[in-house]
Specification:
Length: 341
């Protein structure tokens, strides 16, 4: 199979995936009882962040619906946090069996940026491929309810007088890029402080340990009255009062910061696609059915998130998202590099 690099073109990436499945189909045995029985054991989902975080919550929520379309499968989870996701991806590629029984569920935004910046041994397009997204959400900046800052303009004005500390779940993250791009565009001085996850990052802002926090908007919406959302890195605020009627950042400052969002979704070994095309077809088709099932949107809403976060994307859409995020990492990633003294 063609050896893709970290920056394949979208066309070659999709073509390569199709070639892999096609090649496997030629060598695979005819469809048999195994087709109908798959999966015959638990599906393992590796999460490259900590247990109890947003990815863990979303993976379990999705699996609740997915099992209906996957032979009533059961799922087991493992967690490999560290190095902004690099530990989990490298374990998945090197130690996890490529048999379609092992999947990775990740936060595509920050983890794609990590791949571009840190160059892990697990290579996108060669070792694994994202084949679907289940949700998509924009990034935001918020403060604790007791903060004296009540608008993004005030925050930027303050950051022109002194260094303003900003909690973030990890440095390679679309939200982090947004804050640094805002500082570059306005002359504001921001210092990112990574806390290793969304919950501790948000709590740092609520308790006043830092001045503010930047995360996917889900975190802020779920905290409700504990925080005040100052701005969104999107074209418009479609959440209204749920997001405190916060203005898009470009509307306030006339900047041209790109929309910054993150999608959660699944990845699989390229070798698994190639070797077991029948199994992968079942996975791909059943994932789509689950993502489009209203029950999944109901669960998302019950978890305190807008139903609009549910946004299924197949292989083509997910590869396109990856390509766009790689471009952002190339453009803004240098802002995350340690400053030379």
């Amino acid at each position: 199979m063609k050896d893709f690099t970290i920056t394949p073109t979208r066309r070659s990436f999709l073509k390569g995936g199709a070639m892999a499945v096609g090649a496997g189909a030629l060598s695979a045995s005819p469809l048999s009882k195994a087709w109908a029985a798959f999966p015959e054991r638990n599906i393992s989902i590796l999460i490259p962040t900590g247990e109890g975080g947003g990815a863990d919550r979303d993976a379990r929520m999705f699996a609740t619906v997915w099992r209906k379309y996957l032979n009533n499968a059961n799922f087991e989870y493992s967690y490999y946090p560290g190095a902004a996701g690099q530990v989990g991806y490298e374990f998945y590629a090197a130690k996890s069996e490529p048999d379609c029984y092992n999947l990775l569920f990740g936060n595509l935004g920050p983890e794609i940026i990590m791949q571009a910046m840190q160059k892990p041994k697990a290579t996108l397009g060669k070792d694994f491929i994202y084949f679907c997204q289940t949700t998509d959400e924009t990034m935001c900046i918020f403060v604790g309810k007791n903060s004296k800052i009540t608008s993004i303009q005030q925050l930027v004005d303050e950051a022109k007088k002194r260094v303003v500390t900003v909690a973030t779940s990890r440095l390679p993250h679309p939200a982090s890029i947004g804050v640094l791009a805002l500082g570059e565009a306005t002359g504001a001085k921001f210092q990112l402080v990574p806390f290793g996850g969304g919950n501790p990052s948000a709590m740092a802002a609520i308790t006043g340990e830092v001045d503010c926090c930047t995360l996917p908007i889900t975190n802020a919406i779920q905290l409700d009255k504990e925080v005040l959302i100052l701005t969104l890195f999107s074209k418009q605020n479609v959440f209204g009062e749920m997001a405190d009627n916060a203005p898009p950042v470009n509307d306030v400052f006339g900047t041209k910061i790109p929309e910054l969002s993150s999608s959660r979704g699944f990845a699989i070994h390229v070798k698994a696609m190639e070797t077991y095309p029948d199994r992968f077809q079942i996975i791909e088709e059943s994932v789509k059915k689950a993502a489009l099932d209203p029950e999944y949107a109901d669960l998302v809403e019950k978890a305190g998130m807008p139903r609009s976060f549910v946004r299924y994307g197949g292989r083509e859409e997910t590869v396109a998202f990856a390509q766009d995020m790689l471009a952002l990492a190339e453009k803004y990633g240098s802002l995350l590099a340690p400053k030379k003294k």
